[in-house]
Structure formats: C-alpha cells, structure tokens
Specification:
The complex is a heterodimer. Chain A is flat and about 75 Å long. Chain A is an all-alpha fold. The N terminus of chain A is likely disordered. In chain A, α5 runs antiparallel to α10 and α7 packs across α8. Chain A contains twelve helices and no strands. Chain A starts with a helix and ends in an 8-residue tail after the last helix. By secondary structure, chain B is of the alpha/beta class. Chain B folds into two domains: 199 residues, P-loop containing nucleotide triphosphate hydrolases (Rossmann fold), CATH 3.40.50.300; 64 residues, no CATH class. Chain B has a six-stranded mixed β-sheet with strand order 6-7-8-3-9-10, with helices on both faces. Chain B has a four-stranded antiparallel β-sheet with strand order 2-1-4-5. In chain B, α2 runs parallel beside α4 and α3 crosses α4. The chains are: A mainly alpha, B alpha/beta. At the A-B interface, α1, α9 and α10 of A face β6, α5 and α8 of B.
C-alpha cells in the first residue's frame, strides 16, 4: 500500500517539475531553437543600455563637446588606449595588486571578526543589550568620516588602509550574523532540544547552518563596502593602489589614465560582487523554494 | 507493574506578558491536576478544545518544560529534561531545511557514538520503514507535506525511543494523506511496540487511532474523562469509520468535547503565545 502512496507523491513532484510554461505541441528540436533565439534576444536586450552608454561615451565627447571640455572627458578609445599603456608599463597590475591585497586582508579580518562577534553577541542576551547601542553608534558613523582619525592614529601606511577596510566591512557582516541567528525558526530549536542536544551542539548543528544564507548576504555587502572605502582611502594618502592611480593621474593631468583607473575600479567591483553572489547562492541552495 | 508514563496531579502555570489590552502581567493556569497512567505499548490519544493545554502537556512529557505542580514520571523516573527515551513529532514537521531527508533522519543519531556509515545505514532503514526509499537525497522543500511528516517520523524512530509523543502531526495534511499516514502509523506502532501519545483536535482521528482517548476540559486543562476504545480486530479492507461501534465511540467523545468547546469559545480562549525565552532557553 505504501508504494502506491510514493508513486502518487512522485507523480505530483514530477508534474510540478515539468509544469514549466512550454507549449506541449512544440517538438523538442523546435523548442531548443526557440529557446536559443529567446536567450539571444534577452542577451542583446540586456546589453542595450550598456552599449548605448559606451557609444555615447565614445562619440559624445567628439561631436557634442568643444575641444576644452573634451580634454576632461576623453572618448572611450582614448581611455582604453591609456589603460593598455598602463598595463604594458606594469603600472595597472601593480596598483591592482596593492588594492586587492589591502581589500582582501581587511575584508577577511572583517568576516572572521564579524561572524565571531555576531555569534557571541546574539547568543548571550545581556551582552547584546549592552553592546548593541554602541555598535549601532559605530555602524552609523560613516567609515570615511573616520578616515582622518585613522590617518592620524595609524599613519598613511598599510595599517590605516587595512583598518578602515575592516571597519567598513565589519558591520554588515556583524549585523547580518546577528539577524541570522535571531531569525532561526524556534520550532527547529525545539526539535533539536527534544533530541537532547547541548547548547554547543545546538549552536553548531542548527543555529549556524540556518543562519548561513543571511550571513552570506552580510559578507556580500561587506565585500562591496570594502572596495568602496579602500579606493577613497587610497586617494587620501598612498604610494600605490587604484585610488592612488586615479588621484595621481588627475593631479598630473593624465585624464585618460584617470578614466582607465575608474573603469578598472568598476570592473573590479563587478567581478567581486558577482563572485560573492555566486558564493551566496551556493550556500543558500536549500532555501530556494522552487527549483 | 509500574506504568510507562505516569502523571501525578500535574499542573502548569505560565506568566503571560502584559499586552496593551491587558496591561497587567497575569498567571495563566494551563493545566490543572492531571493524573493519568499509560502502560507500555499503549496508544493514547488526547483531544481537547483549543487552549486546553494539549501542547503544554506534551512539552512536559518531552521534558521541554517543567511542571509547576505534581510529577511527570517515565519508567518511574521523574522527567527532568529531553531524553532519547522519548521522541516528539511536531505538526509543522520541524525538518532542517539545509539537510536532505537522509541527513535529517541521521541527525538524531549524531550525538551517539556510532560511525557515520552506521548512522546512514540506520537512517536508510528507517526511511524505508516509512516508505521513503529513493527519496534519501531530497531536500525538505522538494517533498510534499505527507512525505515531510514521514521523514519526521523516521527521524523520531531512528534512535529507538520507547515513547513517541506526537503533537497534531497530521493536522496540516490533506484528508487523503492523513488517512494514509494514520494507517502507516498504526502499522509502525504494531510492529515496533512503542508507547504512543498522540495529540489531535480531530475526534475521528482520536477514536480511530487510540486504544484510549483522553478528553481534556477547556482552560484550565483538566482530565475530563478517559474513554476506552475497543473496536476489535481491524480488517484491512474494512471501512472502520462507518462501523456502528466506531460511530458510537465517536459520538461519545464528541458529546464530552462539545460542551468544553462551547465553554472555551465563550471564554475566548485561543493558543497562548509563549515567551520566547521559554522556547529557546
């Protein structure tokens, strides 16, 4: 008897899986062709706005602006040329490595610290009510507002830059860790308790895994924040780094080089965010309700 | 012979947090003076109106909270906390969504000192018992309600507790799945000889499953009456629910419950939302 139930259940899930909107009359080869066309159309559509923007960047300065302004807004090809030149000189790699290592070190410290502090604070209620007001105060103090303080106390070397990255990316990780622990389904806690789990094991086996997706959201936000703040910090005082490249190019009137630096920053941000989104999705697969 | 489960004058009070409507914190008597013995291997169902403390009673038996009066004994020993001699099956399945069906069942064995291989093979065995072979690697969100509850039952059986405590386990299921799972549960109960305490608000379910039906009064929950159910031998193809004897038992329990339900409605009783601290700590 039980097998018939299973068979029934299975057909239900199978039906759900195949119930994606596709015409049943369309043959399978036709279907894949339609799909390919639809995919291509979508890709073209998605790049339309970016493409238009790049076209505007290329031709706008040449045909719409006068000579003087064009110096400050060189067309795209000039920027790309400058970028290639920087790459050949090895300058771009050097600055990129400097920025990446600072962001990487600071961000890693922030992730480890944010998760650990978050777990401890959210587990001990009294500690939470003691520390939260202070943490709220710090969190709402823009990291860049504190940049002068960091420079005064830690100089303009690596320490101050890494510290400000830690500061900026620590709070998103912390806040999301706390939120993740707090939103654990109390029913799951009850179930685990009824299985006789100790506090420590409860934490390790239930609370931590169930907060992972929320924590990863914090990690992604922290990653974005770390690059943002680092570039600004490098503009204030540094001997290498993308922020330094931009500000240095500006002050030595190498405008195309400056834009090449800016473009590198946006590409870097895109790549980092994409990687973190992938990672986040990987760790929250189980939360995805319909797949 | 001592009973498997013994309740001696058990009472439970809650402190209800003040709300805007009722600004004073007050004490709420959820259960009062409950005395009841359950023999080993017995199937007892408990029915009662909303807010009669059914879940509270189950929490006491599971060791998730302590009584404010009286004693809860299992095998003659006072219950002081959760233990692996008792298992709870919850209405909302309480499966860990990040674990597959197999890993959910194996979870219950992770505190014990057996190898991972043994854990998984026993988990497989019990998934098979509840009819879920072939679904080991599915995540909860890929399973229907009935299948989720089967996983939860397998998880509660896998560490071989003597007592199964079930808190309206089939209430969230559709009628068809519910009837199938009721029969499965009876089959498992007969083959494993567990002592089962099954809470429900369905009179028919209570009479169908239980050897005894305990009826609770409206708040404060007292034991109103225990009805012994003797339906004789059950044939596989027999429509027991339309049997005159079944109908008579059902009516008897219905009469007992009916006045309590009215009393509860008049008093405006509903589920109490417990303090968060009571659940977590």
């Amino acid at each position: 008897m039980s097998t018939s139930i299973i068979a029934q259940d299975q057909t239900v899930t199978e039906r759900e899986r195949t119930a994606r909107p596709t015409g049943s009359a369309v043959s399978s080869s036709n279907l894949s062709a339609t799909r390919l066309i639809r995919w291509l159309a979508l890709s073209v559509w998605r790049f339309t706005a970016v493409g238009l923007f790049l076209l505007l960047w290329e031709f706008g300065p040449q045909y719409l602006l006068d000579q003087q302004t064009m110096v400050f807004l060189p067309p795209l090809h000039a920027v790309l040329q400058a970028g290639a030149q920087l790459w050949q000189q090895g300058q771009l790699q050097e600055d990129l490595t400097a920025s990446l290592s600072r962001a990487g070190i600071g961000f890693s410290i922030a992730v480890v610290a944010g998760i650990s502090v978050g777990l401890v604070v959210s587990w001990y209620q009294p500690l939470e009510s003691l520390l939260m007001p202070l943490l709220e105060l710090f969190r709402n103090t823009a990291a860049l507002a504190l940049l002068p303080v960091f420079v005064l106390l830690l100089g303009i070397g690596e320490t101050s830059k890494i510290s400000i990255v830690v500061y900026a990316s620590f709070f998103p990780v912390l806040m999301n860790t706390i939120a993740g622990v707090k939103t654990v389904d109390p029913l799951l806690v009850r179930a685990a308790r009824s299985l006789g789990l100790s506090n420590l094991r409860l934490f390790q086996k239930v609370i931590l895994p169930s907060s992972v997706p929320t924590i990863f959201t914090g990690i992604r936000m922290g990653g974005t924040a770390s690059i943002l703040v680092l570039i600004a910090a490098e503009m204030v005082g540094a001997k290498a780094g993308l922020g330094y490249l931009i500000i240095n190019a500006q002050s030595s009137f190498q405008i195309p080089q400056m834009y090449a630096g800016i473009l590198t920053v946006s590409l870097l941000g895109l790549v980092v965010n994409l990687a973190l989104v992938r990672l986040e999705r990987h760790f929250s697969r189980w939360r995805d309700p319909a797949r | 012979m001592t009973a498997k489960i013994s309740l001696h004058h058990v009472g439970k009070q809650f402190l209800v947090r003040p709300t805007r409507a009722l600004p004073q914190a007050r004490v709420l008597q959820a259960l009062e003076d409950i005395t009841l013995d359950v023999q080993a291997g017995q199937f007892l169902t408990i029915v009662g109106p909303s807010g009669s403390g059914k879940t509270t009673l189950l929490d006491l038996l599971g060791g998730l909270s302590r009584p404010t009066a009286g004693h809860v004994l299992v095998d003659g020993q006072e219950v002081t906390g959760p233990g692996l001699d008792r298992a709870i099956v919850f209405q909302q399945y309480a499966l860990f969504p990040w674990r597959t069906a197999l890993a959910n069942v194996a979870f219950a064995l992770e505190g014990q000192e057996i190898s991972k291989k043994q854990r998984l093979s026993r988990a497989r065995e019990y998934l098979d018992l509840v009819g879920l072979s072939g679904f080991e690697e599915r995540y909860p969100h890929e399973l229907s309600g009935g299948m989720k509850q089967r996983v939860a039952i397998a998880r509660s059986l896998v560490y071989e507790p003597g007592i199964l405590l079930m808190d309206e386990p089939f209430a969230a299921l559709d009628a068809q799945s519910r009837e199938q799972l009721q029969d499965e549960l009876l089959r498992i109960w007969r083959s494993t000889g567990k002592t089962v305490i099954f809470i429900t608000h369905g009179i028919e379910e209570a009479v169908y499953l239980g050897q005894r039906v305990a009826v609770l009064s409206s708040r404060p929950g007292r034991l109103k009456q225990v009805v012994d159910i003797d339906l004789g031998e059950r044939g596989a193809d027999q429509d027991l629910r339309s049997d005159p004897l079944f109908v008579r038992y059902r009516h008897e329990v219905w009469n007992l419950l009916h006045e309590e339900v009215h009393r509860a409605e008049d008093a405006g009783h509903g589920k109490i939302l417990r303090d968060q601290t009571d659940r977590v700590a």
